[in-house]
Specification:
alpha/beta, SIR2/SIRT2 'Small Domain', 253 residues, Rossmann fold, 3-stranded antiparallel sheet, 2 domains, 10 helices
Amino acid sequence: MNLAEILEKSNKIVFFGGAGVSTESNIPDFRSPTGLYGEKRENKYPFPAEIMLSHSFYVKHPQMFFDFYFNEMIYKDAVPNDAHKVLAELEKMGKLTAVITQNIDGLHQKAGSVNVLELHGSVLRNFCTRCHTEYTLEETMNSRDDKGIPRCPKDGTIIKPDVVLYEEGLDMNVLYKAVQAIQEADCLIVAGTSLTVNPAASLIQNFRGRYSVLINKDTTPYDRSFDLIIRDSIGKVLKQAFQEMTEYESAGN
């Protein structure tokens, strides 16, 4: 059975995506040679990305943290690609019940998806660490002091991005909703993720549905768990499958 047939026969699809979903929107992934952890980027900074994106580094070295964060994590001009657009269409049709994402770029919502569970938060949400006033990304970037650190206009305290840093725990409410969505799904599509970062990766073990699909160019520790594995571009695969599915439906199959 191909992906188009699976989409056609499924009514509670859950999509679980990682950094690979947004690479077609020109946002780098993490572990490829040109990714955030790749040598080409590592050489620009005195510490590895994992260190610079940790909570302790943010606390001890806020200037260096925000320099890295704003230069390497923010892509204001990025737009949704075919993968984001197809998922939004599937949700509008009532077929897709949730998008679970490890990404923080907000592109799923920009494409039109509504039920998006952001495991690692979003760069679009920011808050004062003292008074908890919320700020947009643009407001945060415009509030930087002479050291490049964003400060709350009300009390001068640091504005922190609502993203999960290393050493920080996931939002348990979001995690619970993700588990529930996967448990209730009849189809799970996993794409663009190495499935090596827990607890996010272990979420797929909660799937008890009928069809499981992996769209990933590289192997993962969970490959044997999937009914269908596709090694190709996520946007290309989803767009083609969606078109074939709509053709099936219009033909009355």
